[in-house]
Amino acid sequence: MLFDVRPKEDKRDLYDRERELSEIRESIDRRVWLSVYGFRRVGKTSVVNVAVNDQRYIVVKVNLMRLYDPKKRRYSRPDFIRVFLEGVNEAIRRYTLGGRVVRFISNVLGVDEETFLEFNAVKIGMTPLPAFEGRGFHCGGLVRCPLFGG
Hints:
By secondary structure, the protein is mostly helical. The protein has five helices and three strands, in the order αααααβββ. The protein has a three-stranded antiparallel beta sheet, covered by helices on one side. α1 (about 20-30) packs across α2 (about 45-50) and α3 (about 75-95) crosses α4 (about 95-110). The relative contact order is 0.09.
């Protein structure tokens, strides 16, 4: 959908962005850092989403806007780590076999993945770790990832 306000994931939904897509992919292939910036609502997120929507890439998206607070000038390391780990956990769910299994079972049962993971964590005696908003679990002070049985 061309005029949907949500960020695009498919190249067919972008118009005249081939040069930007090429530059992003070249930077990734050369392992060079790249910054994408511009005015609000011009399609920065859509261009990046489409550029990395490729089987060759494993993408960890870190939404730093989740940290934004106009009253703060600096942000704590734990806040950044929390947001970063949310991105890592999402990548694990998207790219690993364990994540795909959880998504499949959740779809079959008709429940969201968070509910499925939290239910199974409680069932085997693990408690949700509040700092990670249910995306990781702890037992005896260790962060554990249920997708790897750890």
